[in-house]
Amino acid sequence: MAPKRAVVRQSLPDVIVADLRKRILSGNLEEGALIRQELLAEEYDVSRMPVREALKRLDAEGLLVFKNNRGATVTKHSLEEIAEIFDVRTLLEVDLFARAIPNMTEAHFTACEQVLEEMDNSYRLGNVADWGPLNTEYHGRLYEAAARHLTENLLERVTLQADRYVSMHIDKLDHRDDASRDHHALLYSARKRDIVGATEQLRSHLVNTKNQVIELIKENRQANGS
């Protein structure tokens, strides 16, 4: 008898959630866009039931606003709400980094360096689609040693919201040299166990991203009259 192999099985709602999430985060589905269950069911060639389940999950993630029998709309945050998302993200990340630094081992530093190398390569090659996922992975590696799993779960939800707006404007946020310098500086300070210096660098890095993204969103909405 042939040995059994583990196969990753995804339910229909899982597949639809993943695809819709990707479309929202990329800006393919714009904020405020109406999503009708029957049209999605036709598009994915499925019944309405898995579509309904997928929309409910994305509503729980904050990416959609789902209404029974009325489909859903892509969440549109006010500028104040977007600023709050980035502020909460900054609070969580700075706290995690401060707690992680004393516990970081050579294995943690090596893992961070490996991601940094991938990031530098992607910057050099101009692989824009890789920047967001690699950035998320790198920051996750920096905080791993904190072992604060509840905070990490909270951060994952907030980061999903923040990354939506970063992804929408990542082509205009093309500050590869600045990003590379900041990321290397964070790891350098962590290696020195300089908690104050490292967390201030991180705070500055995140606040700069917030300000740039909000300015771009403001310009885009004014141009579109929204």
Describe this structure in words.
It is a single chain. By secondary structure, this protein is mainly alpha-helical. It folds into 2 domains: 12-74, Winged helix-like DNA-binding domain superfamily/Winged helix DNA-binding domain (Arc Repressor Mutant, subunit A); 79-224, Up-down Bundle (Four Helix Bundle (Hemerythrin (Met), subunit A)), CATH 1.20.120.530. It is built from 9 helices and 3 strands. The protein has helices at 12-25, 37-44, 48-61, 79-100, 106-125, 128-143, 149-168, 176-191, 195-224, and strands spanning 34-35, 64-67, 71-74. A 3-stranded antiparallel sheet has the order 1-3-2. Helix 1 (12-25) packs across helix 3 (48-61). The longest helix has 30 residues, at 195-224. The protein is globular, with a radius of gyration of 20 Å. The relative contact order is 0.11. Residues 4-8 have low confidence and may be disordered.
Per DSSP, what share of the residues sits in E-state strands of 2 or more residues?
A: under 5%
Radius of gyration: 20 Å
Q: Structural class of the secondary elements?
A: mainly alpha
Q: Total number of β-strand segments? A: 3
Number of helices: 9
Order of helices and strands: HEHHEEHHHHHH
Query: Which stretches are poorly predicted, pLDDT < 50 over at least 5 residues?
Result: 4-8
CATH fold-level label of the largest domain: Four Helix Bundle (Hemerythrin (Met), subunit A)
Report the helical percentage: over 70%
Q: Give the CATH superfamily of the largest domain.
A: GntR ligand-binding domain-like
CATH C-level category of the largest domain: Mainly Alpha
Biggest beta-sheet profile: 3 strands, antiparallel
Q: Can you give the mean pLDDT?
A: 88
CATH architecture of the largest domain: Up-down Bundle
- Structural shape: globular
Strand order of the largest sheet: 1-3-2
| Cα-to-Cα separation, first versus last residue | 63 Å
The total domain count is 2
